């Protein structure tokens, strides 16, 4: 949230407030979570890791929608903001914004930042999580290769 906030300040946009409010809310929730679990020392299992990943992506989707929903210049609903956020972090490229010429530069940067972070998430998923499921790089490569397979003759 800090780079888009600084960009909104630089361009003197009204989006400053949406990024600032989101930063405060996320910071407070993160601080509360850290404070409540700082004494806890639990050994996590693989199943816990998968649950953490699913919860992280769900919460990240909601949090990524906050500045878009709070921004008055976009005038989009909560559902559209969540769609835009999920579209960014999953790198699908779908958008509910028809005309981006009137969108503040800081919001455009934020959307680009979401796509970048989403792309990194896909790489982390491929490198860290898929091997735990028994799907390695060679299997992914073979599944994406064009041509005839042994099953087709």
TrEMBL record:
<keyword id="KW-1003">Cell membrane</keyword>
<dbReference type="GO" id="GO:0030001">
    <property type="term" value="P:metal ion transport"/>
</dbReference>
<dbReference type="InterPro" id="IPR003445">
    <property type="entry name" value="Cat_transpt"/>
</dbReference>
<comment type="similarity">
    <text>Belongs to the TrkH potassium transport family.</text>
</comment>
<keyword id="KW-0813">Transport</keyword>
<keyword id="KW-0472">Membrane</keyword>
<feature type="transmembrane region" description="Helical">
    <location>
        <begin position="16"/>
        <end position="37"/>
    </location>
</feature>
<dbReference type="Pfam" id="PF02386">
    <property type="entry name" value="TrkH"/>
</dbReference>
<keyword id="KW-0812">Transmembrane</keyword>
<feature type="transmembrane region" description="Helical">
    <location>
        <begin position="49"/>
        <end position="70"/>
    </location>
</feature>
<keyword id="KW-0406">Ion transport</keyword>
<dbReference type="GO" id="GO:0008324">
    <property type="term" value="F:monoatomic cation transmembrane transporter activity"/>
</dbReference>
<keyword id="KW-1133">Transmembrane helix</keyword>
<dbReference type="GO" id="GO:0005886">
    <property type="term" value="C:plasma membrane"/>
</dbReference>
<protein>
    <submittedName>
        <fullName>Trk system potassium uptake protein trkG</fullName>
    </submittedName>
</protein>
<feature type="transmembrane region" description="Helical">
    <location>
        <begin position="116"/>
        <end position="141"/>
    </location>
</feature>
């Amino acid at each position: 949230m800090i780079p888009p906030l600084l960009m909104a300040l630089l361009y003197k946009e009204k989006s400053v407030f949406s990024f600032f409010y989101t930063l405060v809310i996320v910071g407070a929730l993160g601080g509360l979570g850290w404070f409540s679990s700082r004494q806890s020392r639990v050994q996590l299992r693989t199943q816990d890791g998968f649950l953490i990943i699913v919860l992280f992506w769900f919460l990240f989707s909601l949090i990524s929608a906050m500045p878009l929903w709070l921004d008055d210049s976009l005038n989009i609903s909560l559902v559209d903001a969540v769609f835009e956020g999920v579209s960014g972090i999953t790198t699908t490229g779908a958008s509910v914004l028809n005309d981006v010429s009137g969108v503040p530069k800081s919001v455009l940067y934020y959307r680009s930042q979401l796509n970048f972070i989403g792309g990194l998430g896909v790489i982390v998923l491929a490198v860290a999580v898929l091997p735990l499921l028994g799907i390695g790089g060679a299997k992914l490569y073979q599944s994406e290769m064009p041509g005839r397979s042994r099953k087709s003759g």
